[in-house]
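Appendix B, Record 12. Input sequence as logged:
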Amino acid sequence: MGNELHLIYNEIVNRFLKVSFSKFRRDFLKHLKVEKSETKNIQTQKKQAIITLNDIQNDKSSGRVVTHLKLKTGFLQNEDYLNNSKCTNKFISIICTAYGLTVNANTKN
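Logged structural output:
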């Protein structure tokens, strides 16, 4: 009788430890996944550098495709891209000049 109780006790303790370890492992992996995704989001935001005037003027690709795609990506990912980049009328006029567009400086739209 004492031997059977000892076996039952050991079985209960083993199962409890397995369940506890499994829950700890699950929580730990969940924490790592959240931390990893936050790090990835931060890195993605850092990669989304604001296009500067020098970037546009120094773009040697045909038709300034490189800066065009960077600007396009910025607009698609964030509707307020120009507001966040502290866009000025001068910046917009230089962009238009770079693309060969003429814009009236007095236009408010």
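The chain has a mean pLDDT of 77.
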